[in-house]
Each structure stands twice: as C-alpha cells, then as structure tokens.
Amino acid sequence: MISAAEALERLRSGNARFVAGTSNINDAVSGARRAELVGGQTPFAVILACSDSRVPVELVFDQGLGDLFVIRVAGNIVAPSQVGSIEFAAAQLGTRLVVVLGHSNCGAVDATLKELAQKQEERSPNLRSIVDRIRPAVERLETPSLQEAVAANVRNSVEQLHHGSDILEELISSDKLTIVGAEYSIETGEVGFFGD
Predict the structure, then answer these.
(1) FRET pair for 15, CA 20 to 30 Å: which of 45, 50, 61, 172?
(2) What is the percent of the chain with per-residue pLDDT over 90, rounded to a whole number?
C-alpha cells in the first residue's frame, strides 16, 4: 500500500488531468482492469464526499476501478455508518489516506444555513438528521457565507474522524492514517486541499 503522501500526490495529479481535460479514465475502467480486481481491492485513498451529482469523485480525481474507496452522503457528514466504512478501509484494506471532500454551492450546507435563519415546522426527521450533523460546524460562525460554511463543515467532519473512533485514533497516532479536508469547485473543477 502506498503512503498517505503518495496517495495525496496521485489525487492532485489526477485532478490536474481532470481540469486540463486530459483524463486517463478509459484505461482505468477497461476490461483488463476489471479482471485485475476480481480477487480483491486495495484502494489507495478513502474519499468521504457529498452525494451531489455534480461531484463525481472518481472522475474529479481521474481514477478508475479499485483506486478509491468512496463514501457519499449529503453534506459529507460523519455518522456511524460512515465511520465504520472508513474503519474497514483503513484497518482491513490498509488504506492510508482519508479525504473529506466538500464542494462549492453545497445544498445540504445551504439548507442548514436556512434552517438556522428560520425554523421550519414540518420537515422529514431523516433530512433533519443531516442538518443536525452540519449545524455544529456553522453555528460557531458569525453570519457565515455559504463558502465559509462549506469549509467549516469539512473541517468539522475531519475533526470528528480524528476523535470519533478508537480504531482511527490508533491508526493516526501510529502514523498509519492521515485525514485531510478538501473542497471541490463546481465552477472550475479544481480540488483545493486544506493546508495547501
């Protein structure tokens, strides 16, 4: 398995190809590649991303079959099933990098901002569960813009993963796992990694 630093570089390079329009996706989804994966998977990165149809994770990073362990949920929130999926990829598959990927114009974050501005009486308890997981990140901000709220939500999810699982905490403390935040720009196609 490759290191977190190497995995991050592969994601950066893939996104650069995507933005430039020089993707290698056809090779990455070929019949030969499918055949290579029959015996198992060794994804080099876990991506916890929003379900937004405008953010096709494998395409955005120009990766193919077997490369990424992708978990998609509205608002790239952290809930027990997402944590368990990341634990599986990190502990069982040996994946060394987790990226929490938010994006510009996130509808789930926007819905949370609107909810904070005025209470809606009747709303699905299932949708409320998403809003309630985003709420702590944006409540700390003073009159946030959508862009600020998206970044705060990504940082909050990264923080939750750092401190929400004994398995992940142990892997992080033994330098076997790195968790970073990133934001995809729907407008440009570019992914900016937090800390860059």
Answers:
(1) 172
(2) 70
CA within 13 Å, CB half, 21 = 1
Buried b (16+ CB within 10 A) or exposed e, 138-174: beeeeebebeebbbbbbebbbbbbeebbeebeebbee
CA dist 167 → 61, 81, 95, 139, 164 (Å): 27, 14, 13, 29, 9
Q: Give the CB-side neighbour count of residue 91, counting CA atoms within 13 A.
A: 13
Q: What is the pTM of this model?
A: 0.92
Which residue spans within the chain are E strands per DSSP?
45-49, 68-72, 97-103, 178-184, 191-193
Could you say which DSSP state residue 37 is in? T
Structure tokens at 86: 């990341």
How confident is the model at residue 26, as a pLDDT? 76
Residues 157 and 77 sit within 8 Å (Cβ to Cβ): yes
What percent helix, strand, coil does the chain show, rounded to 5?
50, 15, 35
Q: Does residue 173 have a pLDDT over 80? A: yes
